[in-house]
Each structure stands twice: as structure tokens, then as C-alpha cells.
Write a structure and sequence with these properties.
This protein has 542 residues and is mainly α. Helix content is 65%, strand content 5%. It has helices spanning 17-22, 25-41, 53-67, 86-98, 102-128, 130-142, 144-150, 156-176, 179-196, 199-214, 218-225, 228-249, 252-267, 279-287, 292-298, 302-305, 309-327, 341-349, 357-377, 388-400, 403-421, 427-468, 481-486, 512-518; strands at residues 74-75, 78-79, 472-475, 504-508, 524-530, 533-538. The strands form 2 sheets. A 4-stranded mixed beta sheet has the order 3-4-6-5, sandwiched between helices. Strands 1-2 form a two-stranded antiparallel sheet.
């Protein structure tokens, strides 16, 4: 156990060199910007797009640009009703500026996540001062799950930006009651609604209701919530596109998006993403890495700190998200990020409580130890005989988890252990340094290799199919990034679009036998196979 003592107050404690440095806005912002470059921007243009999510979003963006239809998103020629249009517009603007590549497609997410961190810094600076604001921002930027979302060409970084901005305005309004603050909240909700729909409105309304009623200020909330100018701003931002897609495509989007992809996700599991009531009790500590122990230390303070208005608001925010998704039928780890922003603020505000070095450093040490032995564990994972694509991925994984990978992870583990055992600096300060170490290991050594194993073969297949130039179909496989790299719509095989001689077929290797049995009289040439995927050319019937 660390011999360091708890800091006083909100964690300011006796000033050391880092404390004094963090008190400077210029130094704080410089540290934050450098960390953002490392966590959010380093290498975003290198690894291939991952499926399903990045592939689906980016193929919809590519088709939007190719067709000139910026109203109704399509994926492989069919309407995609999963999300509203803002993320596609942002990606399209980036592609117009930088070309169709991974950097352009991921850049809007990295920029949105950076604004998310900077908005947090500005909010906390108003309430708690520069040092706490800088610690909160650094903690958030170094959180591995936040960085994953920041480097992904999906809607979540943009959505989290607008959700956080909305909550910050709500708390400001609770203190100042100025109408302009409430109007800005409506603006952010409108942009969030244009990004991912009702979730951008639901949580702010639920948390506002609980927080204001807990303070006996229900009438104040009622007046703000019924502000006609606020709703006019909301409708002016979100309404035109929703009207346009109705006029362009009819009721299909509304029936699918609101009933299936929103109400349906709460009532049942979609795409197999289910979990028990305790799912997020297990997932939350993982998505907060490397700061899991920090969170566990502040968790017992909830009851004692409840009378404090800021703490109460932040806990309301987190708990609303945690409870709602715990009861939801569909569960995904990144859903919890909607409620993670307040945790970074709480950890920074009460950083002086983190004095137990074992609690702080065991989670990142365990993660790095697991990553170090990962090449030894892969051969031990049982693979079913009917899933050869998984066996192929594990075999490919062993080729990329090489000596360079082991060296990077081993150095990271040694540095983390050294920081855990050090007696210099405070525990939370050393844990921030561990966050930097983990960022280098994960974003420099782990993720590029993981994406190369999972998606490198898909990218190669798409580029090869583009060069071959034959009519191409997808057979019982869902990897839309193939179409992005092929730069063409790739329809799925169906009764309306059957297999035919002269086609190029993209498929997972566990479907090869089925393809052969469907066309017994048609010659089939395997033109590409790597990892879990293959390309087959169908010849003319004899």
C-alpha cells in the first residue's frame, strides 16, 4: 500500500511541481493538446476500417458522395436507417477535402472527441479551476475506450460531444438561470438528435428532471423545458433533414429508426448484443481503464458528497445512463460512454482520495500482463471445426504478434510497474503517466495489429476486386468495408440478385463449401484467400 496521504479539500493538496504547472492555463492546454495528438490522432490513417460499424458508416458516406443524394443514406444500394445524416455529412466533407481514405473518414470523430475534451476542460475550469480541469481532461483523453471511439469512423464521438455540451449548459442554467444558456442546450440537443436521434434528448431530460426536483426547483425546470424559442431552435436544427428524408423516402426511416433501432433496442437484443442485468457492472471497470481503481476509490463517496450540487448532478448523469442501459435489451460497451464524462470530472475533483497504489495500478498492470502473454494464449483457444475463419484469424494473429509487439508491451509493463513502486509524486499523478504508457502500447503496438488481422484481408480483397473489375456480389457475409475499398456497391446474393457465371464472389472462408454446393456445375476459381475471407471467380457453365 502506498504511504502517501490523502490530499485535502477537493484534491488540490500541497502543491508540487506538477500542481504548479497545472495551475497555468497555457501549460494545461499544451499538455491536453499533446495528449489529444497521441490518443486521438496518432495513426488514425493507418489501420484498415473495421466491420461492421466503420464499414457500414463509411460505405453509406461513400454512396452518398457517389450518388449525390445527401438526404437518404444507403449502404450497398439499400437505404440505411440506422442513424440520421449528420455523421455522413461530416465524413463526406472530410472526404471532399482529403480524398477517400481512412484518415478522412476518421478525422471528424477525432476532431469531435477533441472538442468533447476541451468542452469538459472549459466547464470544469469555470467550476473548479484550471488544475482540476486539466486533470479531468487528461484523464478523459487517456481513457482507452474514449480513444477507441475518437479514432473510429462512427457517430459516437460526435454524439458524446453534443450530449456533454447539453449537460454542461443544464448545470450552468441551474446556477445562473439565464435564458441564453437554456437556448444553447436546445441547440446542442438538436445537433445530437441529428446525429443519433432520441438518446440526445432523453438523458438530458431525465437527469434534469431528477436533479431539479431533488433541489425543489421543478418550476424552474418546467419553464426552461417549455421555452417555445428553445424548441423552435431544436426544430430548426433537426427538423429540415427529418422532413427531407420523409419526402425523399416516405415513412421507412421513421418506422425503422424510431421503432426498431431505438424502442426495439431497449425491448430486445439486436444483432446478438445481449447481456444480463449485471453486464455493465463488469464492463464499466474495463471501459474506464487505466483509471478503474481511481473510479472505485471515489464510488464510496457518493452518499457523503450527495449534498454538494455539482457532485449530485454528476452522479445523476452517470447513474441515469448506467441504470437505463442495465435494463435495456441491447447492450454494447460504448453505450456507457454517454455517462462517463461526469466520472472523469468526479475523479479529478476528488483526486486526493486516491492514495492506495495497489488499487490504482493493479488494473493497468493486469491488462499489460494479459497483452504480454496474448501470443501464448491464442493457440490455446479452442476453435470449432465448423468455424475455419476463426482459426485463420488466430493463425494470422500469431504472425503479427511478433517480437516487436512483445518488446513494446514488455517495456510498457516495466514502466508501469516502476511507476507503481515509485515514491515520487502522488498516486494520481503517476497513474496519468501510466495512461500515457498505455496509450503508446495500445495505439502503437496492439490496435494496428488487431485491425490488420481482422480487416487487412478485407481491404486487400476489396482493392483486388476493384482491379479485376468484374460484377461482384457478397455471399452470406457482412463486411461493408469491402465495398468502401472496392469503391462500388456490392449487393448481397438474394433471390432478386442470384449467383451467376462471370461474377466475382466475396465471402468468408467458412462459406466456401456452401458456395460450391449451390453451383455444382459452375467452375469456381479461388483468386484470393487470406485470413478469414476469400474471392471466388465464377466461370461459365460447361
Amino acid at each position: 500500500m502506498s504511504t502517501l496521504q490523502p490530499l485535502g479539500g477537493h484534491g488540490a493538496g500541497p502543491a508540487n511541481a506538477l500542481d504548479r504547472a497545472l495551475a497555468s492555463p497555457r501549460i494545461g492546454l499544451a499538455l491536453i493538446l499533446a495528449t489529444l495528438l497521441l490518443s486521438f490522432f496518432w495513426g488514425i490513417g493507418g489501420p484498415p476500417l473495421y466491420d461492421l460499424d466503420e464499414g457500414a458508416f463509411t460505405e453509406a458516406t461513400r454512396e452518398m458522395i457517389a450518388s449525390g443524394n445527401y438526404v437518404t443514406p444507403h449502404k450497398d444500394g439499400k437505404p440505411r436507417y440506422d442513424k440520421p445524416a449528420l455523421i455522413y455529412w461530416l465524413q463526406a466533407a472530410s472526404v471532399h477535402a482529403l480524398g477517400l481514405n481512412e484518415l478522412a473518414l476518421r478525422l471528424p470523430s477525432a476532431l469531435a472527441a477533441s472538442l468533447w475534451v476541451l468542452a469538459l476542460w472549459g466547464f470544469v475550469r469555470e467550476r473548479q479551476g484550471v488544475p482540476t480541469a486539466t486533470v479531468a481532461a487528461l484523464t478523459m483523453a487517456l481513457s482507452l475506450q474514449v480513444a477507441v471511439i475518437a479514432k473510429a469512423a462512427v457517430a459516437d464521438a460526435v454524439l458524446n460531444l453534443f450530449i456533454a455540451l447539453t449537460f454542461f449548459e443544464i448545470y450552468r442554467y441551474s446556477l445562473e438561470r439565464r435564458p441564453g444558456i437554456a437556448l444553447r442546450a436546445f441547440l446542442w440537443m438538436g445537433l445530437g438528435f441529428l446525429t443519433k436521434g432520441p438518446v440526445a434528448v432523453f438523458f438530458p431530460l431525465v437527469v434534469s428532471l431528477g436533479f431539479f426536483l431533488s433541489r425543489g426547483e421543478g418550476r424552474i425546470l418546467w419553464r426552461a423545458a417549455l421555452n417555445p424559442l428553445g424548441w423552435l431552435i431544436f426544430l430548426a436544427v433537426a427538423g429540415p433533414w427529418y422532413l427531407a428524408i420523409y419526402l425523399d423516402d416516405g415513412p421507412g426511416f421513421f418506422e425503422s429508426f424510431f421503432l426498431k433501432h431505438n424502442a426495439g433496442r431497449f425491448g430486445g437484443a439486436m444483432h446478438g448484443h445481449s447481456g444480463s442485468l449485471f453486464y455493465y457492472f463488469i464492463v464499466l471497470p474495463l471501459i474506464l481503464l487505466p483509471f478503474t481503481g481511481w473510479f472505485l476509490r471515489i464510488l464510496p463517496t457518493l452518499r457523503a458528497r450527495w449534498p454538494d450540487p455539482l457532485d449530485r448532478f454528476l452522479w445523476f448523469w452517470f447513474l441515469a445512463v448506467f441504470v437505463f442501459f442495465s435494463f435495456s435489451g441491447t447492450k454494447l460497451p460504448h453505450y456507457m460512454l454517454y455517462g462517463a464524462t461526469p466520472l472523469f470530472i468526479l475523479m479529478a475533483r476528488h483526486r486526493g482520495l486516491l492514495t492506495n497504489a495497489w488499487l490504482a495500478f493493479v488494473p493497468p498492470l493486469a491488462l499489460l500482463a494479459l497483452l504480454l502473454v496474448l501470443p501464448d494464449l491464442l493457440p490455446l483457444i479452442p476453435v470449432r471445426p465448423d468455424r475455419p475463419h476463426e482459426a485463420a484469424q488466430f493463425a494470422l494473429g500469431l504472425t503479427v504478434l511478433d517480437s516487436g509487439y512483445r518488446l513494446a508491451v514488455g517495456l510498457g509493463l516495466a514502466l508501469t510497474l516502476g511507476l507503481a513502486l515509485a515514491r515520487v509524486g502522488l498516486v494520481w499523478q503517476r497513474l496519468l503517466l501510466v495512461g500515457l504508457v498505455l496509450a503508446v502500447v495500445v495505439h502503437g503496438a496492439l490496435m494496428p495489429r488487431v485491425l490488420e488481422v481482422m480487416q487487412g484481408p478485407v481491404k486487400e480483397a476489396g482493392l483486388l476486386a476493384q482491379r479485376i473489375g468484374l460484377p461482384t456480389v457478397v455471399y452470406r457475409t457482412s463486411m461493408p468495408s469491402f465495398s468502401v475499398y472496392r469503391q462500388a456497391i456490392t449487393p448481397a446474393v438474394s433471390p432478386e440478385n442470384p449467383l451467376a457465371p462471370g461474377q466475382l464472389v466475396f465471402l468468408r472462408i467458412d462459406r466456401l463449401e456452401s458456395l460450391s454446393s449451390e453451383l455444382p456445375g459452375v467452375p469456381q476459381e479461388l483468386v484470393f484467400q487470406r485470413g478469414p475471407v476469400a474471392l471466388v471467380r465464377l466461370g461459365a457453365e460447361p
